[in-house]
Design goal:
The complex is a heterodimer of chains A (223) and B (83). Chain A starts with a helix and ends in a 10-residue tail after the last helix. Chain A has two domains: 90 residues, Orthogonal Bundle (Rna Polymerase Sigma Factor, Chain: A); 99 residues, Winged helix-like DNA-binding domain superfamily/Winged helix DNA-binding domain (Arc Repressor Mutant, subunit A, Orthogonal Bundle). With 223 residues, chain A is mostly helical. Chain B is mainly α and 83 residues long. Chain B has one domain. In chain B, helix 2 crosses helix 3, helix 2 runs parallel beside helix 4 and helix 3 crosses helix 4. Chain B starts with a helix and ends with a helix. The chains are: A mainly alpha (223), B mainly alpha (83). The interface between A and B is large, with 46 and 37 residues.
Chain lengths: 223, 83
């Protein structure tokens, strides 16, 4: 295993043709201030590589590109401003996600979906009763995913209550570990696990409804 | 191998269902995992169910979009220049 990841990252920000401008220290002040120059270089090397994953999260959370860009921008500006507060060597991605989450809450608090409106028992029952409803999962699988568009999966995801959506996005779209997610939501791993499971069950419930409404799946009610 | 299997406890479909998510997330270990896998070998329905959950998970992962890195970087660079 040759280079350490940090070396690789540093290597990757070395100028490719045409990217020199980006590496230039912006203000004259920086030219005279080695501290600022260092800060800039560190920030470039450590924080910027996570932009894609954060943007994706912002997009899924806000539901549109404009808000996602604004949220990303705000996150990075704050991260830059508070760069001194970041403890070197700790999980940078989790730190950035935390900033993003706080920005999101401050900005969209009023619009946040209340998880209380969900009847969890009903979801739980549905999940356990897929079999009882005499639905062959193999058949369901084909019908549901053969016919449902990605749009509907995205729509269902968007409709999830925030707490669950966050965990599902981070786990199943972004591929973060339970540990990373726990750090991000500042809850124990057990909570990550239960929210993820519930989130997925909720999603299935919604997709099932879409499929039923579109006549993709027919069920005999009251089975 | 055959003798080992005899010691694996049989679990019900309900019990198997509870473990499915941990299983597809690779969080199920040891005896717990062996019991589920044994159940999946013998229960077609639960086997299908696992496939179904895996599919949903992979469907979700496809929602990942290319994040237009270049555009975003340019915007950020422009902003950072104001500092």
């Amino acid at each position: 295993m040759g280079r350490s990841p940090s070396t690789c990252r540093r290597m990757s920000v070395r100028p490719r043709a045409g990217s020199e401008r980006r590496l230039m220290i912006p203000s004259l002040l920086a030219f005279f201030s080695p501290g600022l120059k260092k800060k800039h270089a560190e920030f470039e090397a450590e924080a910027l590589p996570h932009m894609d994953v954060l943007y994706n999260f912002a997009l899924r959370t806000t539901g549109n590109e404009d808000d996602a860009r604004d949220l990303l921008q705000e996150t990075y500006l704050k991260a830059y401003r508070f760069w001194d507060k970041y403890e070197k060597g700790t999980n940078i991605r989790a730190w950035l996600f935390r900033i993003m989450k706080n920005s999101y809450i401050n900005r969209y608090r009023k619009e946040m979906k209340e998880p209380d409106t969900v009847d969890y028992d009903e979801i739980e029952n549905f999940y356990n009763s897929i079999r009882a409803q005499s639905i062959d999962t193999n058949d369901l699988q084909e019908k549901l995913y053969g016919n449902l568009l990605g749009d509907e999966v995205a729509k269902a995801l968007e409709a999830l209550p925030d707490d669950f959506r966050t965990v599902v996005i981070l786990s199943d779209i972004e591929g973060l570990t339970y540990e990373e997610i726990a750090e991000f939501i500042e809850r124990p791993i057990g909570t990550v696990r239960s929210r993820l499971h519930r989130g997925r069950k909720l999603l299935q419930r919604m997709l099932f409804e879409y499929a039923k409404n579109r006549g993709i799946i027919k069920t005999e009610q009251g089975d | 191998m055959k003798t080992e299997k005899k010691h694996i406890k049989s679990i019900s479909c309900e019990e198997a269902l509870k473990r499915v998510f941990d299983y597809i997330d690779e969080h199920l270990r040891g005896k717990s995992r062996a019991e589920l896998e044994h159940h999946l070998e013998t229960c077609r329905h639960c086997f299908d169910r696992v496939e179904f959950e895996k599919l949903l998970k992979s469907r979700l992962s496809k929602l990942k979009v290319e994040a237009q890195s270049e555009t975003l970087r340019k915007r950020l660079d422009a902003l950072l220049e104001q500092f």
